[in-house]
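Page 42, continued from yesterday. The earlier attempt failed because a stray header line got pasted into the input along with the sequence. Redoing it now with the clean sequence only.
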Amino acid sequence: MRTLTGGLLSLEFDRSTVTRVRHLVTVSAHEAGLDGMALEDFVLAVHEAVTNAVRYGTPPRDITLYREKSSLVCEVSDSGPGIPPEALDKDAATTRFDFGGRGLWLMNRLADLSVRTGPRGTVIRLCVLLV
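This time it went through. Structure tokens are written below.
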């Protein structure tokens, strides 16, 4: 794992480091200026992206946390097969899956979400304003 200046992160992760990544995101986002419910919501959204990358993606899996103007941005990427088109409706809580399937919906409620996905992998970008 490696960290960048200013308390921001750039690291590769796997199943064994998910808890450590959540801790590092919490500390880094707090140092960047998030606190209270905004911090909790952002960390939950990032954790959802990280666990989805572990569950559905393939290595390498990376997370990068950085400031962009007055925002805090987190990008989670993997080299998996991409997200199926039917799962990309981030505006509707999905009920078509027996288990799961609500991650994008949740991330979209907790942060500004954008998704780039295809047969060579996925990048989830989560962004929140720093006030």
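Notes: The two ends are 28 Å apart (CA to CA).
Reminder to self: strip header lines before submitting.
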